[in-house]
């Protein structure tokens, strides 16, 4: 265990992990943020991401979390966001349309590009003096009693050891941190798959026959 009482390792640099890194850094922790994927901000990696167009719905709760960083991230993110004040329901086989607003006082959720949100949060964390962001490193094992972790460099296959007073798992549905925790604590865990899928449609803008968009 490191003698530094404020050393935190965060596994997973998705939107949650990157935002957590900013919050921990604001509280004075030395933050080591590990991500198994390559840096999504690099041009050679962006092409692999931009073929997916699914946006993220950002609610007031999400905006409050961004605002709480003190970095005006809520305002910055919403510069490229789009308010969604309602939804359109397609009823029956004939496709009758029914418009349904989200609230009577103009409440809305906001559509934002998930990849851009993630990039902006990583950049916010990466610019802080007490945050180190390490890509291409996958957690292999963790000793929660000693606060030690072993991560594999996915490029060189080297095993890197890290120490932490606090380990935070933000590594998604198939969490390696959770798997490690299950070896040390009695906890119930279940994972269910819904029977539904999704179909992604690309509807590019075009000029109609009347010359209007």
TrEMBL record:
Gene Ontology molecular function, alphabetical: FAD binding; kynurenine 3-monooxygenase activity
GO BP field: kynurenine metabolic process
Top-level division of the source organism's lineage: Eukaryota
Cofactor: FAD
Record domain FAD-binding: where: 7-181
GO cellular component: mitochondrial outer membrane
Secretion signal span: none
Keywords of the record: FAD, Flavoprotein, Monooxygenase, NADP, Oxidoreductase
Gene3D superfamilies, per the entry: FAD/NAD(P)-binding domain
PANTHER family the record matches: KYNURENINE 3-MONOOXYGENASE
Official protein name in the record: FAD-binding domain-containing protein
Organism of origin: Modicella reniformis
